[in-house]
Specification:
CATH architecture of the largest domain in chain A: Alpha-Beta Barrel
GO molecular function (chains A, B): (R)-citramalate synthase activity; 2-isopropylmalate synthase activity
Low-confidence stretches of chain A: 1-13, 444-453
Strand content of chain A: 15-25%
Oligomer: homodimer
CATH superfamily of the largest domain in chain A: Aldolase class I
Region (Disordered) (chains A, B): 220-243
InterPro entries (chains A, B): 2-isopropylmalate_synth_dimer (IPR013709), AIPM/Hcit_synth_CS (IPR002034), Aldolase_TIM (IPR013785), Citramal_synthase (IPR005675), LeuA/HCS_post-cat (IPR054691), LeuA_allosteric_dom_sf (IPR036230), PYR_CT (IPR000891)
Structural class of chain A: alpha/beta
CATH class of the largest domain in chain A: Alpha Beta
Helix content of chain A: 40-55%
Distance between the termini of chain A: 46 Å
Largest interface: A-B, 139 and 138 residues
Protein name (chains A, B): Citramalate synthase
Keywords (chains A, B): Amino-acid biosynthesis, Branched-chain amino acid biosynthesis, Isoleucine biosynthesis, Transferase
Number of strands of chain A: 16
Strand order of the largest sheet of chain A: 1-2-3-4-5-6-7-8
Mean pLDDT of chain A: 86
Chain lengths: 573, 573
């Protein structure tokens, strides 16, 4: 369902259709630590379009050069289905809409839909805008009418709706009346400060639905005199929530159950302070549990990928514990669970993970029982027997290493190598004899203001390895010590294993295990590698960050070679 | 309110009293990536006790040596007020409770309260336990009666309550009846799979409250024949929720509004898969918004500290975006917000941050406007004038550095140094001329199984600095390259600044800025330092992890000296 079909569908019984409105690019970008380039914004918009989101709020054209350019680029290469929506505020107090350059800039963005936010809370009108309550109503009405006059369709965001309604319900409702009079097609109730709880949302949305139905009835009987606009359909209600009370998703659900038909939120719940309603949680709840239609069912299975891809674009680590799409959302750890979930998944999983494109995981950890080890082995394609003493040996070894700080939950490639080693299935492809690293930094000053360009640095690594009975000594330089070491290792190995030319590192994470010990603490390094088709993660732990990195890098190369051999074996068998 | 007062308070009108039950140490520890030592468990228990939590679930005595020892240590050094509760399952099918060694082990933990979980869902009885529905009822009743016989008070956790009730309400209710007959004082309804939504919780809890009231009435008229127990008060209802639908907190609120009087959850929402109900969100909602009494008001102000301290103990980065207690929960970023929130906080904050021990923050970032810079300067005790061209210069410089990858949101100490530099208030305490680092690793093999003990490694750093016109050259060794560099720098500085002996690093975080470039990517290092009283964070960015670490370490020392000088100046003025 695209927004094009909105008017048509209104004629149908659409009580189970919901319009998803994504504001990752605007409200989401307010999150502390998140900053989007134009390319990032375009990638995210195209990803949301592929997911089937009908409305994508792109930004405030004119607020900064980035947002202007974003809308221009989309005019040249439009999205497939989604409507990109421009966002802005009402006209300035005491001026006409036509004379407001900010509103003219909005029109140049060339969108069909515009989301306009206005003040619902009397306190914000008098204290924030420092204008009269009457003028605020005129600002809402005029601005919407201005956009209607320019053939734009308007979504009205009632800012601070719930707080405003609680303080002064009559005035708050009169702002909605102004939006209706201006010709808004959607009235979106915003819990801007995020302080409202679900039972309050239910009551207030119920009041608004009644108010809108009642007014629409009156309006049908007495059309507004002199309104030049063609009659618009009854405005629909939308909901926009924030997570300051930890109930953003529940608040949106409560609103939908009272009749709201648009849900606004962001991917992964990004947003200012505690974030916005997380669409990756909200959509599956609405669609799989309450039977509403938000996305086509085959699109819903892209949700997990979309969530993770966007977290990569914005360069924030994904929340492994996120409902539905997190890596741990369907992870089973305790021994009892694991055997039960394998017998009957329904007894331990609230939905089938595949419905949102996620999958079940059996977690390896220091709480692992034998049944976890067996399940994990099976997922690696290794047949193990519970009676086999190697099983207990692997479990014992695993616990010992985890005690030292290794974490195999996140480094399954290293765990597979460990398991294959215990089973005598791990070939020693090469042997590291020694390595040396030299870093020299000569700098003019420790002056941050004058910048980091003044120093000259160099990292050089030498490495000696044994391969096929030969000793190979190589040296290489790099940006930093780990890059130098990686380069030297590859140089030494490439003649024996030319496949490694296709491997590259996709992520590198460092965690200090005992923060209190500072730079002397143990370091755990996780390295993610790729061959262009597959990704795998390996782990290294040491008191020395170089050595921990080195362990993870070496295992990453080794695991890549193992995958390559398995692929070859599969082809020839 | 401690649990001691529970029976007494029952006589009072306690409709607004709630009992908080923390299960961080048991259900929370199921979180992927979380592993607790006995010391960790004891520290967390004492912290929860200080916070005023009346019930702390400690673990399952006998399940592993750690939990046994935990309870023994608490018998020797008991908590101040909280009840530590032992957790276990019902007796085995087909045996008596007295003959079950698992239940005997629970008694040795010496707790006054025991939480027993039993099956509510017929499917789990027949498929999971593989016993009859009747035997399950007997298991619940007998086990509780066994504990009552041994003078224990019992909380009954109805596992999979909501799913079970939806499948077979009659059977589910008969399990509660068995718990009532056994003598349980609390019936806790558990949404074990986390799939239930708030409106379902409301309906089902309402049914249970009615059921319990009705049964209690009948029982008063017809006491159970042959029940040797003294009559127990009417059991109360509790709620235990998981966040798989993103509604754990809302579900608990819904249950309380229908009459539940115990809320179970974990600090920071730790728990299996997507976690348990987050007590740091639930408690302020209940207490500040719904007017229930969970903690004494002066204890509530310790919530933020408790949340952060426990995240340190479990060694997981705190969630900056957590409601109420997150570092960003009351952070203001956009320019309009900042000026408005300073005029009237109520218009942009749903509670006063101090009520939960948190505080307002004005965020410095590439979206910063001049008013943010001014607000930030004020918080550093620096008076700046908006007209001063230095303001714009700082803003410009900030944006340039953030573009390079610096992030001052998390490194306020570095930002203060930058600001003081622009204002000519930063003294060059020392000048780094050059440094060199040597790492040698000579190892027997790259064999993970045979362990990391076989290699010999060494990191050595030399550094040349200029202080007071003198050149100082020093060398030091360390666990790793950064530790060696830190040691050499301190050695060079200690004669000039003996105060640095008291500084130490409390955390060290590394983030790769462009994951796709792997080990050649830019590295951002955040270093947290302390002088025992205060903590501060500094940042370094470079393509070379050593250099980035070095920048952050140097600024950490410099900022520590600045704090020391300010303290001295305050004393003499």
């Amino acid at each position: 369902m695209t927004s094009d079909q909105f008017t048509e569908t209104q004629a149908l019984n659409h009580s189970k259709f919901l319009w998803v409105y994504d504001t990752t690019l605007r409200d989401g970008a307010q999150r502390e630590g998140l900053s989007l380039s134009i390319d990032d914004k375009l990638r995210i918009a195209r990803e949301l379009d592929r997911l089937g989101v009908p409305f994508i709020e792109g930004g405030w054209p004119g607020a900064n050069p980035k947002d202007v350019q974003f809308f221009w680029q989309l005019q040249e290469e439009p999205l497939m289905n989604a409507e990109v929506v421009a966002f802005c505020s009402t006209r300035r107090p005491g001026k006409t809409a036509e004379a407001d350059p900010m509103l003219q800039a909005i029109l140049t963005a060339g969108t069909r839909w515009i989301t306009l936010f206005g003040k619902s809370w009397d306190l914000h009108v008098t204290e924030g805008l420092q204008t009269s309550l009457e003028e605020n109503l005129a600002m809402i009405r005029d601005t919407i009418a201005f956009f209607r006059h320019h053939q734009r369709r308007v979504i009205y965001d009632a800012e601070h709706w719930f707080d405003g309604y609680k303080c002064n319900p009559d005035y708050a409702l009169s702002t909605l009346q102004a939006a209706i009079d201006g010709g808004a097609e959607w009235l979106v109730l915003c819990d801007t400060n995020g302080g409202t709880l679900p039972h309050e949302v239910s009551t207030i949305v119920r009041d608004v639905v009644q108010f809108v139905e009642h007014r629409a009835e009156i309006r049908k009987q007495n059309p507004v005199a002199g309104n030049p606009q063609p009659p618009t359909p009854n405005p629909q209600i939308g909901i926009h929530t924030h997570d300051d009370s930890g109930t953003a998703v529940a608040n949106a659900l409560a609103a939908v159950m009272e009749g709201a038909r648009m849900v606004q939120g962001t991917i992964n719940g990004y947003g200012e302070r505690c974030g916005n309603a997380n669409l990756c949680t909200l959509i599956p709840n609405l669609q799989l549990k309450l039977g509403y239609h938000c996305l086509d069912a085959d699109r819903l299975t892209k949700l997990t990928d979309t969530s993770r891809l966007i977290s990569e674009v914005v360069n924030l680590a994904p929340n492994d514990h996120a409902p539905f799409v997190g890596q741990s959302a369907f992870a089973h750890k305790g021994g009892i669970h694991v055997s039960a979930v394998e017998r009957n998944p329904l007894t331990y999983e609230h939905i089938r993970p595949g419905q949102v494109g996620n999958c079940r995981r059996i977690v390896i950890s220091d709480q692992a029982g034998l049944s976890n080890i067996l399940a994990k082995a099976r997922s690696f394609g290794i047949e193990l027997n519970k009676q086999d003493p190697t099983c207990r040996q692997i479990l014992h070894h695993l616990k010992m290493l985890e005690n030292e700080g290794y974490q195999f939950e996140a480094a399954e490639a290293s765990f597979e190598l460990l398991m294959r080693q215990a089973l005598g299935q791990r070939q020693a492809l090469f042997e590291i004899k020694e390595f040396h690293i030299y870093c020299d930094v000569i700098r003019g000053s420790c002056d941050l203001i004058r910048g980091v360009d003044e120093w000259r640095g160099r990292s050089l690594a030498t490495i000696k390895i044994g391969v096929n009975g030969q000793d190979i000594l190589e040296a290489a330089e790099g940006n930093g010590p780990v890059a130098a070491l990686d380069a030297a290792l590859r140089k030494a190995l490439i003649n024996f294993y030319p496949e490694i030319a296709a491997f590259y590192l996709t992520d590198y994470k460092v965690r200090i295990l005992d923060g209190a010990a500072g730079t002397s603490a143990k370091t755990r390094v996780l390295v993610e590698s790729s061959n262009g088709h597959q990704r795998w993660t390996t782990v290294g732990v040491s008191g020395n960050i170089i050595d921990a990195s080195y362990q993870a890098v070496v295992e990453g190369l080794e695991y890549g070679l193992l995958l390559q051999n398995q692929a070859k074996a599969a082809l020839t068998s």
